[in-house]
Structures are given as C-alpha cells and as structure tokens.
Design a protein that fits this description.
alpha+beta
C-alpha cells in the first residue's frame, strides 16, 4: 500500500526537521518530485559551499508511480524514469552526505568512482575534484538545521565507501 518513496543512502542524513515537515510535503499531492539540498560534509559538522559544492540538489522523495519499471540504475542514475507530468519542488530541507567528512574518505571515494568509471562515461568531469581542496570554503551546520544520528568515524572501510 505504499504510495511514496523516501530514498536515502546509509552515509546520508536528512535534516532533523524532515520528520515534522514530511506530512505537509506529502499532502501537496502525488504530482510532485521533491528535491533536497545536498550538503557534502567535509568535516563532521561543516559542509563545502564553494563552486559546484554549493548548489547540489537531489530528488529523494517521490511518488511510487514515478519509479522506473527497471530498478537497475546506472552509476549516478535516477530512479525516476520520466519527470514529465510532475513538478520538481525544492523541499528546502538539507540532506547531509557524510562519506566526504574526512580527507581519507574523500580520497577513497575518488578512487572508487575513478575505478568504476575510468572512461568518464557517467560523469564527464571525472572524479579528481572529490578530494581537491583548492579554494575550499566550509560552512558549519546552522543551529536548528542539524541531523541525527551524528557522524561516527568507522575507519572508512573501503568495501562500504560510496
């Protein structure tokens, strides 16, 4: 009987306010695809804001009717086959990506994606930017916009890095 999908990876945390705001988002109708502001954590409590880092949006809440029939998704692919007929909306809620929270994790992520996509077929700019700290500007998570549970360093097990 599910009608909605709320997609999140194990290394991601929605802003805590999502729980209170979710009923309102769902009530706006099944013709909406909800985007969340992706914050790539470069420390356990700060995210990167310069360059391409400051404007990433990811669709993570969508009606089940929008999901692809074939759930095999290519690297960096989307679960929604066709967005026509749906309105893309910014939920104005942060989605914190923790996989980048330490320099070691950023290097492992760069290496993993570079090996998975050596010809840059899925991302033309490649993956070297993932651990390039030149011009880096960080912003601390604002009060009232935090997430839980908190980041816990697990040693960056290479098998689970995504």
């Amino acid at each position: 009987g599910a009608r909605w999908v709320l997609a999140v990876d194990p290394d991601e945390r929605f802003e805590d306010s999502l729980a209170a705001r979710l009923p309102d988002l769902l009530a706006r109708g099944e013709d909406k695809l909800w985007m969340f502001q992706l914050k790539e954590m470069f420390t356990p409590d700060s995210y990167r804001t310069d360059g391409l880092w400051g404007g990433k949006l990811l669709m993570r809440l969508f009606p089940l009717s929008a999901v692809k029939d074939d759930l095999t998704v290519a690297l960096h692919g989307s679960w929604v086959a066709d967005t026509s007929g749906y309105g893309l909306r910014d939920a104005r809620i942060n989605l914190y990506h923790l996989r980048m929270a330490t320099p070691e994790r950023r290097k492992m992520r760069r290496d993993l994606y570079a090996a998975a996509d050596p010809g840059r077929a899925f991302q033309k700019i490649g993956y070297d930017y993932l651990d390039d700290e030149r011009g880096m500007r960080l912003e601390r998570i604002p009060s009232g916009r935090g997430f839980s549970p908190a980041f816990v360093e697990d040693g960056g097990d290479r098998k689970s890095v995504v």
